[in-house]
Design goal:
The complex is a heterodimer of chains A (110) and B (113).
Chain A lengths: L8 E5 L4 E6 L9 E6 L6 E6 L4 E2 L4 E4 L5 E6 L8 E7 L13 E6 L1
Parallel strand pairs in A: 1-9
Antiparallel strand pairs in A: 2-7, 3-4, 3-8, 5-6, 6-7, 8-9
Chain B lengths: L3 E4 L2 E4 L5 E7 L5 E7 L6 E6 L6 E2 L7 E3 L5 E6 L8 E8 L8 E2 L3 E5 L1
Parallel strand pairs in B: 2-11
Antiparallel strand pairs in B: 1-3, 3-8, 4-5, 4-9, 5-6, 7-8, 9-10, 9-11
The chains are: A mainly beta (110), B mainly beta (113).
C-alpha cells in the first residue's frame, strides 16, 4: 500500500502559487519523498525529491516538515499546462520501488 | 521521455493470445520496472529488475512474466492475454541509489478483446 495520503483534487488560479500537501507519517529515516506528475495519460514526469531538507529546482519547491511526517510541493506560478495528477511517493529502499497512491488532481483555471 | 523507449505504443489482442512488450533504455541504469495503470487509478508495480539477469515480483505479478537478458532491455510477456489485462503499461528505469529518480517511458496501450 502507498505510504502517503493526498487530497483527491485541488484548484488553483493561473499565475498563483499551487501548494499541494502530502502526509507520510510512517516514513522511515532514510526514505526519500518523491513527487511526480502525470499529464493526461502520458508517462509520469519526475518533479523533485528530498530527504529532510527543503529543495528547489526549476520546476518546483519541496518543503518537508522537521518531523518528516508531511511535505508540500509548491509550484510558484501555476500555468494551464500544470494541470495534471500529482503523486507524492515515499520511495521503497528495497529495489527502489515507487508505490503510487491516487494522487491529487490539480486543475489550473484561467 | 528521452532515454526510455517502449514498443509497441498500441496493441489490440484477442483473449488467449500472447505478446511481449519491450522496454529499452540508453541511460545505463541498473534498475528497471514495469507498471500498469488502469483508468482513474495510480500506477501499480508488476515486476522489476535490479540488474541484468535478475527479476522480482511487484504488487500485481500474476499473468505476467519478465526477462532481463541484457542490461538495456526489460521484456514483459503475457502468455495468455485476458480482458483484465487491458491497461496502459509503463516502463521505468532508475539508479541504485535512493536519491536517483526513476524515469518513465511513454507507455503501451494494450486492449484485450
Amino acid at each position: 500500500d502507498a505510504k502517503t495520503t493526498q487530497p483527491p483534487s485541488m484548484d488553483c488560479a493561473e499565475g498563483r502559487a499551487a501548494n499541494l500537501p502530502c502526509n507520510h507519517s510512517t516514513i522511515s529515516g532514510n526514505e526519500y519523498v518523491y513527487w511526480y506528475r502525470q499529464i493526461h495519460s502520458q508517462g509520469p514526469q519526475y518533479i523533485i525529491h528530498g530527504l529532510k531538507n527543503n529543495e528547489t529546482n526549476e520546476m518546483a519547491s519541496l518543503i518537508i516538515t522537521e518531523d518528516r511526517k508531511s511535505s508540500t510541493l509548491i509550484l510558484p506560478h501555476a500555468t494551464l499546462r500544470d494541470t495534471a495528477v500529482y503523486y507524492c511517493i515515499v520511495r521503497d529502499n528495497q529495489g527502489g520501488k515507487l508505490i503510487f497512491g491516487q494522487g491529487t488532481e490539480l486543475s489550473v483555471k484561467p | 521521455n528521452a532515454g526510455v523507449t517502449q514498443t509497441p505504443k498500441f496493441r489490440v489482442l484477442k483473449t488467449g493470445q500472447s505478446m511481449t512488450l519491450l522496454c529499452a533504455q540508453d541511460m545505463n541504469h541498473e534498475y528497471m520496472y514495469w507498471y500498469r495503470q488502469d483508468p482513474g487509478m495510480g500506477l501499480r508495480l508488476i515486476h522489476y529488475s535490479v540488474g541484468e539477469g535478475t527479476t522480482a515480483k511487484g504488487e500485481v505479478p500474476d499473468g505476467y512474466n519478465v526477462s532481463r537478458l541484457k542490461k538495456q532491455n526489460f521484456l514483459l510477456g503475457l502468455e495468455s492475454a485476458a480482458p483484465s489485462q487491458t491497461s496502459v503499461y509503463f516502463c521505468a528505469v532508475g539508479g541504485i541509489y535512493s536519491n536517483q529518480p526513476q524515469h518513465f517511458g511513454d507507455g503501451t496501450r494494450l486492449s484485450i478483446l
